3-methyl-2-oxobutanoate hydroxymethyltransferase
Amino acid sequence: MSEQAPYGTGPGTSGDPAPGATALKRIRIPHLQAMKERGERWAMLTAYDQYAAEIFDAAGIPVLLVGDSAGNNVYGYETTLPVTVDELIPLVRAVARAARHSLVVADLPFGSYQGSPQQALETATRFMKEGLAHAVKLEGGKHVVPAVELLTQAGIPVMAHVGFTPQSEHALGGYRVQGRGDSADTLVQDACELEKAGAFSIVMEMVPAEVAARVTEVLHIPTIGIGAGAECDAQVLVWQDMAGLRGGKAPRFVKRYADLRTVLSDAARAYADDVAKGTFPDAEHSFQH
Ligand SMILES: Nc1nc(=O)c2c([nH]1)NC[C@@H]1CN(c3ccc(C(=O)N[C@@H](CCC(=O)O)C(=O)O)cc3)CN21
Ligand SMILES: CC(C)C(=O)C(=O)O
Ligand SMILES: [Mg+2]
């Protein structure tokens, strides 16, 4: 690919892809494609609000996903299933308005695209127009190929999602690794068909590392793993998992890079203690006559 580098490596810039560099340009799909061709791995994070988007954008995260995982990470549902288009669009809009460089991908929620390619197009169009998204993501294998084709033809970039697809957890019988044994070939085939249909990238969730490596090798588009081993072109995590904000037992594929839950909890306790003791607010935080 002859596309320019995603970071500020052009004339007049330092060529330093340092986190927060102001020379960063908007990441576009050809940049992701070029990174695959150069063998450069990258990270995707979810984001659901302004500050997360601002921070990850400035940190040089090239793609932000407004996941339907907002269902269990923002709205307090147990799973992603109940979350609606009307609940997700304002979050996508907030992230898109805050992200200066990152490509913003909107997850299409359960029930908003499986009915027909036409339904998928109507939903995706809302995410692009009202949510200001740059691309959409949807779950499924060969059954969603006609939808991927229609969206792509309509000018809407599509990120595919195979392996464990959380919107189908009841049909799949729970949170289980997909693509083991005989089903590996089906997964590879599905991935190939999604690429052929026009998908610009593909998430693989809870897939054996060897199978994900096979898909990454045969596909020309970037693969994004979550519980899919180290050979994917990119990785994705839910940000509250990555930053240790979420409590409880995390899935095996999660690595915590911070302990925000403790940081916030300590801050809240210290604030409440100060208020109880009468040491906050002090003169510095008060207004005098
Ligand atoms: N916070 C959060 N993180 C996620 O990764 C995530 C969401 N939410 N919501 C949407 C989906 C649901 N996902 C999940 C949720 C749970 C497991 C889980 O419990 N995994 C266990 C069992 C695996 C097994 O049985 O083999 C694990 O230990 O990995 C996996 C993926 C991934 N997505
Ligand atoms: C975990 C990622 C891939 C996702 O689909 C989401 O956050 O909804
Ligand atoms: Mg999702």
The first strand starts at residue 42 and ends at 46. Residues 93 and 132 are 6 Å apart (CA to CA). The longest helix spans residues 260-277.
